[in-house]
Q: What sequence folds into this?
């Protein structure tokens, strides 16, 4: 079963890189964009440029978490941080995407968090629309991107459809695409969730377990044009099925109390 331990895994020792670190005691920002990456050096500068263009009118920061890259990702991050509001941390050893997201959200100063994958397949142009809906509806909410037209291989698309159908039936999270990396949610909400390996795949179910609401928004999805995927189809499917059982266990082991005000 997954652990609800909220501490970073022992292997996720942070190496100080650039200007990153724990969330500083400064005025909060409206938005932090958290991007977990591993071996994505060619995608760093183009993605930052896109984010800066679409968020030009919004106070924000970009937080990259380098999950133990062995390429030039660290050097690429140092280069972009010179001219853009980029902060970054590095796991000395790879601990997985979920651990990187947890590290980034903990370091963030934004009231709202937007996550997206670092491979360039999520379109930053969708962030303002998802953020606007989150702010408009407010409260304990997760706005999840829905890749209506996937730009992946047939095998990936087919395996995702199967996984989504099984997950939706077992967890009843009413979300058509939990695998989309583009999501917007309050930082405070995420910090209240149980943290465990691969939790990023189950954020809608965890938010519902916490008493929140989940809504989906159609988003653009683009083919990968640089670098190589860090995931294999079969190994990802096997791990997801194991985690699915664990998340179902978590749902059944928690009763959310209705609290009345005292006199």
A:
């Amino acid at each position: 079963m997954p652990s609800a331990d909220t501490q970073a895994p022992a292997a996720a020792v942070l190496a100080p890189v650039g200007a990153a670190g724990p969330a500083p005691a400064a005025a909060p920002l409206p938005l932090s964009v958290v991007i977990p990456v591993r071996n994505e050096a060619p995608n760093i500068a183009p993605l930052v440029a896109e984010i800066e263009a679409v968020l030009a009118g919004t106070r924000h920061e970009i937080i990259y978490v380098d999950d133990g890259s062995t390429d030039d990702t660290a050097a690429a991050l140092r280069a972009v941080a010179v001219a853009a509001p980029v902060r970054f941390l590095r796991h000395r050893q790879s601990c997985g995407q979920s651990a990187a997201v947890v590290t980034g959200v903990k370091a963030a100063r934004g009231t709202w968090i937007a996550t997206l994958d670092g491979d360039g397949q999520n379109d930053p142009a969708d962030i303002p629309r998802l953020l606007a809906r989150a702010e408009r509806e407010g409260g304990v909410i997760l706005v999840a991107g829905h890749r209506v037209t996937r730009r992946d291989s047939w095998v990936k698309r087919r395996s995702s459809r199967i996984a989504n159908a099984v997950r939706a039936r077992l967890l009843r999270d009413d979300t058509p695409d939990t695998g989309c990396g583009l999501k917007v949610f309050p930082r405070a909400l995420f910090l209240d969730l149980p943290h465990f390996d691969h939790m990023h795949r189950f954020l809608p179910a965890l938010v519902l377990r916490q008493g929140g609401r989940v809504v989906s928004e159609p988003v653009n999805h683009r083919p990968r044009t640089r670098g190589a995927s860090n995931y294999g189809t079969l190994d990802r499917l096997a791990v997801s099925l194991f985690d699915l059982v664990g998340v179902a266990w978590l749902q059944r082991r928690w009763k959310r109390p209705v609290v009345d005000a005292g006199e």
